[in-house]
Predict the 3D structure of the following.
Amino acid sequence: MADNSDDRTYEIAKSLGAKCYERKDTKHRTKGFALQYLVECIRRDYGIDSYEGYFIFDADNLLKSDFISRMNDSFDAGEKIITSYRNTKNFGDNWISASYGIHWLRTIRNEHRARSLFHLATRIQGTGFLFSWELIKNGWNYTSLTEDRAFCADAVAQGYKISYNNEAEFYDEQPISIKIAMRQRIRWAKGHLQALAETGPSLLKHIFYIDKSVKVSEDGAPLWKKIINNLRLRFMSFDMLTVVFPRSLMLLFKKIIVYILRAVLIFTTGKVFSVGLAPELLRDILKFFGITPVADGDFSALVLLTAFTLAWTLDTYINNIILAAYIFIIEHKRITPIKWYKKIWFCLTFPIFDLIGKLSLCIALFKKVEWKPIPHNASISISDLNNKQ
């Protein structure tokens, strides 16, 4: 699908044998609308069920030579939706591209692998996935800013499991500009809110009620297996609801409220130090700086609030640094070689990436967001990446 392309993508793709379609629609510019149009073209010209399954890739993706066969192994094993190992082809460009790379690998470690272990549904992330034709037999109905999130939620609400293939690896290009990163993260945040509105009710319903059209288990399966599968399907809906729900926003609001309450409590009880209720260590610290709790109640309270704030910030910052270091260690064989001092720098700057995500979500709440293209300019081939490893 050459979507609103301003170059010769359509002509070149057709000349090289691809079945290519072209779309010009400046009013409906999301990837979801492009896929909707493409699916309708396939239905018209070939029939949706003419193909057993469909891959979705972005134009900048690079695939390992065995990617298709690895994914096909999972498909032949009966999986209906399969996501894959998303690597970063420009990992070492700067701290922004590295943060994206760590982010995708964090998702693999914390979500894909964990959920696969317990035969639960993980989630697709925009590109590099395969699904059965039956998922789009009624068309592609996901046109929000993050069509992948809505697709996942809807599939799980229908009883589908989304599996993960750790051996099928592809490479994706990441932004290197803070401006582009902010634009993309705000779009993601707005799309996540849209996905919650679109699919949240059906997921919530599926936790308590499974439609008769959803096949809970194979015909003739023992009762215990049907009960376990029934509970598994319900839990998958609950789990996916926690994914589409903007948890980071709720946690941010919670932290802000707790911080305000803590500040009010500390300043209104500044004289608590005068009755000796302050922790001994804190009183020793105040004494070291020459602060008398009885005489300087308000100042003591300010010191206490500052200590809480620094401890809270430092704890979050260090946790993210440790997580980034863990990713570099555990995934070192699959990350393109990066100088050790760059790895240290990327670990130290990774917490900023999560901060950008929280800020983007706050902005998305109040801003009208439109889809804009993300530039991809890295001239890297799959052979270049293979030679680096």
Summary: The two ends are 32 Å apart (CA to CA).
